[in-house]
Amino acid sequence: MMDKKVRDLINDQINKELYSAYLYLDFSVYYDEQGLDGFANWYMVQAQEERDHAMLFLKYLQNNGEKVTLEAVAKPEKTYASLMDPLKAGLEHEQYVTSLINDIYGAAYDVKDFRTMQFLDWFVKEQLEEEKNADDMIKKMELFGSDPKGLYSLDAEYAARIYTAPSLVLD
Ligand code: FEO
Question: Does domain 4-70+104-159 have CATH number 1.20.1260.10?
Fold first, then answer.
């Protein structure tokens, strides 16, 4: 039996990851409306990755014989006043997700749930990449975003992102 607090936090994380997918889908829709297909593609792929994260947490509970309870996914708030806004919101969101992963890790550590700690190690590493990607996008937008040719090149770069399944796979 998994510790109740650990189980509840993991169950909540399914919802948080699905919200992340919904948030990035919202970013994708916004950039599509702005005519930036590459940015839209980047966030569409990101939304797929977030859905994968949700599924990994869900599968982990199931593999441990724990009950999964799905809750309503919150509506993303759409208040983007500039092309930079979603990028900054993305970094802020990933920092928040990192804090959630750390909270679950801390709860698992408290009850010596080494199995969950090992499962979470993948997410700890993944969050470093998630924050770095978000930070890089802000820096590139600061450097090149105000120049039309620079923005065009950035958009072309983001158009090349393709979806790949996560390296962590649970049977
Ligand atoms: Fe599921 Fe972007 O972290």
Answer: yes
